Amino acid sequence: MNDRRLLLVHAHPDDETIGSGATMAKYAAEGALVTLVTCTLGEGGEVIPPELAHLAADRDDTLGEHRIGELAAACEALGVTDHRFLGGPGRWRDSGMMGVASNDRQDAFWRADLDEAAGELVKVIREVRPQVLVTYDENGFYGHPDHIKANRVAWRAFELAADPAFGEGEPWRIAKFYFTAMARSTMRRSAEAMREADVRFLVEDVDDLPFGCADEEITTEIDARAHIGRKIDAMRAHATQISVDPPWFALSNDIGQEAFAVEHFILRAGTQGPTVPAAPIEVGGLGEPYKLEDDLFAGID
Ligand SMILES: CC(=O)N[C@H]1[C@@H](O[C@@H]2[C@H](O)[C@H](O)[C@@H](O)[C@H](O)[C@H]2O)O[C@H](CO)[C@@H](O)[C@@H]1O
Ligand SMILES: [Zn+2]
């Protein structure tokens, strides 16, 4: 174990793997403490396997409980041993996609009191004392209300954890705050490869997808190719949400995506560390002429 401590805040079981799974596996394998906080149980998700359809919210409403098990299996696959649900399992419920009726439930994460939810995350931050925090950008990566709220709660907790006038425990200032990111150029190349591979999933035009950023916004590139097998295994663990046909996967909308082994991030707060030439495009990097951090802890230790 080294002294590196990485905290990730994700909205639902499966997001950790989709957006940062290879990176989590890499740092866990290198001996860092990787702590995952998941904000809901994913109670409102769709269910892919027909034999599990009864779990859905409008049937038995036991999908949240089932996804606790999926997430435990995914964390084991990633080598992540420290996982918490924000405020405890079921404290806040999956709000559903933007605009649906479940957004208005009293227990919806989207309606959570910001300082109350952030206060729960401050407890974890002051206990773990992470140097690095990762979550979504202000749009929640793709606009889901729970993802947007996760960004807001994480940012508020980032501020409060460092404030000696707030709450109990020793204040802790996190050195670097990152957003998960996906470069549109990488997405385009992936979509082209999917078309050529004639995969069984739908291939959408990148411009029609609700996520992706300009290459120039990326600050950090984590080459976790050595750990892609763990990411694929973790995706398989989330069987109600993800279909896997490596290196491709799809959610219940059946829109094909690539399980990237090189994952990108945007530094939102903190000082950028030393940069190196980006990995080649052929392996999923941004390629020339980009120079990026190749380590989330760059410049800290
Ligand atoms: C990756 C992610 O955030 N998944 C969420 C999302 O699930 C999507 C939702 O059910 C949508 O209606 C489908 O078309 C899409 O395929 C799903 O990925 O929203 C769910 C409800 O809030 C959430 O449980 C799931 O984790
Ligand atoms: Zn999600």
TrEMBL record:
Record family assignment: Belongs to the MshB deacetylase family.
Required co-factors: Zn(2+)
Annotated residues that bind Zn(2+) are located at 12, 15, 147
Q: Does the keyword Hydrolase apply?
A: yes
**Protein's recorded name:** 1D-myo-inositol 2-acetamido-2-deoxy-alpha-D-glucopyranoside deacetylase
> Cofactor note, please?
Binds 1 zinc ion per subunit.
Identify the InterPro entries for this entry: GlcNAc_PI_deacetylase-related (IPR003737), LmbE-like_dom_sf (IPR024078), Mycothiol_biosynthesis_MshB (IPR017810)
Q: Which GO terms describe its biological process?
A: mycothiol biosynthetic process
Report the catalytic activity.
1D-myo-inositol 2-acetamido-2-deoxy-alpha-D-glucopyranoside + H2O = 1D-myo-inositol 2-amino-2-deoxy-alpha-D-glucopyranoside + acetate
Taken from the record, one Pfam family name reads PIG-L
Residue ranges of the TM segments: none
Function in brief = Catalyzes the deacetylation of 1D-myo-inositol 2-acetamido-2-deoxy-alpha-D-glucopyranoside (GlcNAc-Ins) in the mycothiol biosynthesis pathway.
Highest rank taxon of the organism:
Bacteria
* GO molecular function terms noted in the UniProt entry: N-acetylglucosaminylinositol deacetylase activity; zinc ion binding
Q: Which UniProt keywords apply?
A: Hydrolase, Metal-binding, Zinc
Gene that encodes it: mshB
List the EC numbers from the record: 3.5.1.103
Return the broad EC class.
hydrolase
In terms of SUPFAM superfamilies, this protein maps to: LmbE-like
